[in-house]
């Protein structure tokens, strides 16, 4: 069975939901009335070994809409931090994205053939608007929100990989995605590719995880996902920035 065939909420959370929704006796399965939690937790962001930010996040599905929420809190800061909320349909189309840091905010929504970004700053009550000629299926990869990278990894696995005899096999060529970075007010193309299984030490414990590479014109990130825990993102390394991100 392909990973696409196991979708439960579209391209974003296929792998995380599959294990949950297939658990138990299918004959007695009762459709839940409330939201279904796909993933939740926190990432610690470390620069040169020192924690600088904690990202608390949740990914859930309800009534065919998938919602990805995140909160960034700087270490030792009493400020409110940054928040984001991404909502998508079951086919991965953007419904709404919003970001706020207490001083300014922005939103992104589909508008005919465009994505329309509206930016509000503390100095102006009237939002500035910027259109992007991009389809509604474009990925959102905003600054510093690592759960959005997890969602993109799930999309890559769902659309480019399949299981054969219990083994995950992906297309050899990297997959390209069009993405929007709302805080930078820019769009770009990124590539993702499966490297394979690697042994990684996390908090003193060695684990065998799947490695993906996320590549752009000016960056290269390594991501590790746990196939034994619904392909959740466990670690990210940004070597050029001396940055490591680890799930708490």
What can you tell me about this protein's structure?
The protein has one domain (4-21, 36-247). The protein is 9% helix and 56% strand. It has 248 residues and is mostly beta strands. The protein has helices at residues 14-21, 146-160; strands at residues 36-47, 50-62, 65-74, 82-89, 94-100, 104-111, 114-121, 124-132, 139-140, 161-164, 167-170, 175-181, 186-202, 205-215, 220-226, 232-238, 243-247.
Brief sketch in words of this structure:
With 248 residues, the protein is mainly beta. Helices cover 9% and strands 56% of the residues.
Low-confidence stretches: 1-27
Instruction: Give the domain tally.
Output: 1
Order of helices and strands: HEEEEEEEEEHEEEEEEEE
Main β-sheet description: 15 strands, mixed
Pairing-aware structural class of the strands and helices? mainly beta
> How many runs of DSSP E, i.e. beta strands?
17
What's the alpha carbon Rg, rounded to whole Å?
18 Å
Mean pLDDT: 87
What is the count of DSSP helices, taking H or I runs of 4+ residues? 2
Q: What is the beta-strand fraction?
A: over 45%
Strand order, main sheet: write it out: 8-7-6-5-4-3-2-1-17-16-15-14-13-12-9
The best one-word shape is globular
- Portion in helices: under 10%
- Give the end-to-end Cα distance, rounded to a whole number of Å: 32 Å
């Amino acid at each position: 069975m392909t990973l696409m065939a196991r979708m439960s909420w579209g391209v974003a959370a296929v792998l995380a939901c599959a294990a949950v929704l297939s658990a138990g006796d299918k004959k007695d399965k009762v459709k839940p009335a409330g939201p279904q939690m796909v993933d939740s937790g926190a990432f610690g962001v470390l620069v040169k070994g020192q924690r600088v930010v904690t990202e608390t996040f949740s990914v859930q599905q309800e009534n065919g809409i998938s919602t990805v929420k995140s909160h960034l809190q700087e270490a030792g800061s009493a400020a409110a931090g940054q928040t984001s909320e991404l909502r998508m349909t079951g086919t991965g189309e953007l419904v709404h994205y919003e970001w706020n840091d207490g001083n300014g905010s922005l939103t992104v929504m589909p508008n005919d053939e465009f994505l329309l970004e509206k930016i509000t700053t503390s100095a102006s009550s009237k939002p500035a608007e910027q259109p992007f000629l991009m389809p509604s299926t474009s990925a959102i990869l905003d600054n510093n929100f690592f759960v959005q990278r997890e969602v993109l990894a799930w999309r890559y696995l769902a659309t480019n990989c399949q299981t054969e005899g219990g083994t995950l096999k992906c297309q050899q060529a990297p997959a390209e995605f069009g993405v929007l970075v709302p805080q930078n007010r820019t769009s770009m193309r990124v590539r993702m590719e499966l490297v394979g299984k690697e042994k990684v030490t996390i908090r003193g414990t060695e684990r065998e995880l799947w490695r993906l590479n996320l590549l752009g014109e000016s960056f290269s990130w390594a991501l590790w996902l746990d196939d034994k825990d619904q392909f959740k993102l466990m670690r990210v390394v940004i070597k050029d920035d001396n940055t490591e991100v680890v799930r708490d």
